[in-house]
Amino acid sequence: MDKTKVSLRLLLALFIFTSTSLPASEGESAVSVSDQNQDPNQVQTQTPAPMRTQVGYGELLSLETRPSDSTITYGEDPLQRVEVWRATAPANAALVFIHGGCWLNTYDLNHAKGFYHALAEKGITTYAVEYRRTGDEGGGWPGSLHDVSAGITASLDDVARNNSKQTVVLAGHSAGGHLALLAAQSLGADFPGTMSPGAIKSGHVNNTNVQIQSVLGLAAITDVAKYAMGTNSCQSATTAFMGGEPSTAESAYTAATPDSSKSDIPFHLLHGSSDSIVPVHHASLTGAASTIVPSGGHFDWLHPESTSFHALLEVISQHGY
Asked: How far is residue 292's CA from residue 290's CA, in Å, rounded to a whole number?
């Protein structure tokens, strides 16, 4: 066969192959056969993505968020403040939230900004309480608890000024959960101010009482003495927060151990079964309800695409949200 004809045939074959198999160029749509035969009136649906578990801390920092809407101060120190994310959907509930971070001043309220934003989008006004922690003058035990209690007071007073009929829930994550549970016990004790158990009496809005429906411990540390004996980085921070080992500061550890019988506000502990930072046995507390999320991790509660976050919404809804 003539070599010229062979070359032409090879070129033609190569042209046919490339024109039928190469992907569409940039700016063009690659249309498949199934696309061409699709009924234009048929509604396309997507299978919902499965809910997440074992969310990493770093993932929280890349979540969608926005600046807080307002700031409430409850003391002279810049850390004694509450950042408020007001509901962008019709407001049905208010959540007063105590962030975690091993009680250390390394971790402030900012790591959970995506969480506050997501709650606001769901119609839950969120009060994120900042407070002095280990490493801050006035922080540690019991100063951090005093700050948290005062921050809760200021938050609920704001709820009373704006809409006293909202469902109000107190919650905290990890070390913040520990402080939230203890603060619930103090809402009828010596500080802060004069309050009836489970309610805060506002001095600004015709003495309106704002009732806390429940206190939620999200991966909360409930056995502080046992936690101090652990070896992970957060457990190792316990003695610095408490000012000593359980054997040398026994009375302090006793006072820092949540006790649901001392609170008129119901305790509800929510925990992931596979939490590697705060073991799941911390969700076992006499007199407290509990919700355990299978395969759930420590930071899942703060991620709006997680199973744990949706479990939290379900618990809040049980209180009228």
From this structure: 7
